[in-house]
Amino acid sequence: MRNLLYNYIVNDFTDHSYKSCLEYFPFDSNILDIGIGNGKMLKTFHPLIRSKQLSITGVDINKVYLKNCKRLIKKYHLQDHLTIYHEPIEYFSPPNNEYYDFVLFSMSFMLFNNQPLILDKVKNYLNPNGEIVFFQTMFKNKSWLLDFTKPKLKYITTIDFGKATYENEFFTLLEKHKLSVSQDKVIPKKFGKGEHRMIVAKQN
Ligand SMILES: C[S@@+](CC[C@H](N)C(=O)[O-])C[C@H]1O[C@@H](n2cnc3c(N)ncnc32)[C@H](O)[C@@H]1O
C-alpha cells in the first residue's frame, strides 16, 4: 500500500528527475544516490543505466521501498550496476573508502533537518572533480501556508515531502559550504506552484 501510494503520487517527479540526471551523468560514472526510494525509475531507465555503464550506490532508510528496489534490480539484471544499503545517510560510510563522481539528491534533500551537516559529510565522498546534483521543487517567494502545510502532508499521504525549498536560502547554503553552481536547469512540469530544477554544484 505504501509503495502503491508512493508510485501514484511521486511517479511524475521521479521520471522527470532521473531522466534529467541520468542523461547528465557521463559514461562510466560512479554515483551515490541518497534516498533512492523504491527504484521505480529502473522500469524506464534500465537501458540507459546499462548502456552508459553507470555504477549506482543507493542509500535509503525505508525498508519497504528498498525491498521493491531490490526486486527491480533483479528483474532488470542490474546487479552489476546498482548496490543498495538500508541506512540513513547520516550513518553511511562508502564501502572500501570509495569516492564518487556524483552525489545525487533526487527529491530527497528537502527531507533533511540538518542540511549543513549532510553537505559537509557528502562533500568528503566526492572525487576531486566530483559534483553534487540536486533535483527538487523550488520556490522563489516565502509562503507561511506552504511552510505550514508541506511538512504535514506525510500524515495524509504517508509520504514525507519535507520542507519547502526556497531559492535564496538554498543558494546561500551552497555558498556557505563553498559549493558553486555549474548548472541550473528548469524542467517543465504539468501542475502546482514552484519549479522543478536540476542544480549541479561543485567545490570551489
Ligand atoms: C521523495 S523520496 C525520493 C525517492 C527517489 N530519489 C525519487 O526521486 O523518486 C525521498 C527518499 O529519501 C529517503 N530518505 C529520507 N531520509 C533519509 C535519510 N536520512 N537517509 C537516506 N534516505 C532517506 C526516503 O525514505 C525516500 O525514499
UniProtKB/TrEMBL annotation:
<protein>
    <submittedName>
        <fullName>Alpha-N-acetylglucosaminidase</fullName>
    </submittedName>
</protein>
<dbReference type="InterPro" id="IPR029063">
    <property type="entry name" value="SAM-dependent_MTases_sf"/>
</dbReference>
<dbReference type="InterPro" id="IPR041698">
    <property type="entry name" value="Methyltransf_25"/>
</dbReference>
<dbReference type="Pfam" id="PF13649">
    <property type="entry name" value="Methyltransf_25"/>
</dbReference>
<feature type="domain" description="Methyltransferase">
    <location>
        <begin position="31"/>
        <end position="130"/>
    </location>
</feature>
